[in-house]
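Structure first, sequence second, as always.
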């Protein structure tokens, strides 16, 4: 993970023409990025050929721009979306009200993919005790490269099972972009996602909310009192995501950005409920 550098070389018109013919809407920008990534004409030809064959630009380049950072993204790993910057903004805003000189907040990027959310939070709102987790080994390898240098730890496994037990009841910010596309809608996604991102990174089950449901249900056991769960969702699914929060003993509010076409549901354990924060964790153990 690096800060994004600036000036890019001017590509040959033929490259732009080929990219445009292959359906690349931002052919000129893409051509500049590909030209900058190639050290020789042969390398440029190879990169253009991969892109024209339908591979996502980020997989061809090996990185994606996210919140002003270059996030490494290997082939077969979910490409962080611009809209997810809104999840980062909301989490950073909440972090600004926690922490302090003597308290480093614990932040978990669950379903981390490349680790983009965690890396951006560390850059925007550090210092943090940062953990990220994903079920997919390729994603974990990528996240290690992106958040390892920032002092973050990356864990592999199914949701919370991946996390060290010592984090129970201590998490200040649980930032989650889990898969939320309903299974029946996967076929309507752009080809780049459908063919080149793992199904498990997109498919949220019949109603799209199956992973979110499991995340919300166990969140009160992992959140510190006053900690926050933030889940990216779609505008259409937001009322259902809110229901999941409330059923799990969390408050819930919806925050949206028209500019980014982004929706995030944010909640905190309701104090005094059977599921409120560390209470549930303690109850598990007595
Ligand atoms: C939509 S992608 C988001 C990745 C990353 N948070 C981002 O915004 O770029 C969802 C990620 O969730 C992971 N995932 C799906 N099911 C999971 C599970 N049961 N436990 C942990 N991770 C899971 C996928 O491997 C994928 O990397």
């Amino acid at each position: 993970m690096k800060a994004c550098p600036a000036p890019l070389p001017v590509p040959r018109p033929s490259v732009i023409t080929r990219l445009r013919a292959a359906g690349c809407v931002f052919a000129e920008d893409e051509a500049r990025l590909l030209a900058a990534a190639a050290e020789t004409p042969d390398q440029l030809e190879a990169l253009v050929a991969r892109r024209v064959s339908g591979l996502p630009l980020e997989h061809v380049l090996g990185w994606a721009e996210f919140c002003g950072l270059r996030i490494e993204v290997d082939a077969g790993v979910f490409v962080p979306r611009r809209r997810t910057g809104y999840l980062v903004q909301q989490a950073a805003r909440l972090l600004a009200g926690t922490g302090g000189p003597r308290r480093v907040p614990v932040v978990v990027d669950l379903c981390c993919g490349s680790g983009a959310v965690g890396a951006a939070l560390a850059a925007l709102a550090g210092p943090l005790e940062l953990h990220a987790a994903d079920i997919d080994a390729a994603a974990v390898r990528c996240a290690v490269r992106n958040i390892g240098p920032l002092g973050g730890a990356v864990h592999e496994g199914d949701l919370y099972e991946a996390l060290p037990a010592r984090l129970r009841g201590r998490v200040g910010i649980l930032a989650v972009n889990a898969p939320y596309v309903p299974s029946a809608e996967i076929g309507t996604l752009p080809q780049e996602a459908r063919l080149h991102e793992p199904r498990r990174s997109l498919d949220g089950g019949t109603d799209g909310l199956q992973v979110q449901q499991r995340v919300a249900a166990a969140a009160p056991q992992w959140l510190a009192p006053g900690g926050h769960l933030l889940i990216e969702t779609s505008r259409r699914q937001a009322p259902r995501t809110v229901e999941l929060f409330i059923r799990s003993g969390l408050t819930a509010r919806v925050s949206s950005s028209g500019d980014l076409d982004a929706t995030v549901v944010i909640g905190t354990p309701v104090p005094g409920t059977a599921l409120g924060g560390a209470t549930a964790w303690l109850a598990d153990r007595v």
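Margin note: The longest helix spans residues 210-222.
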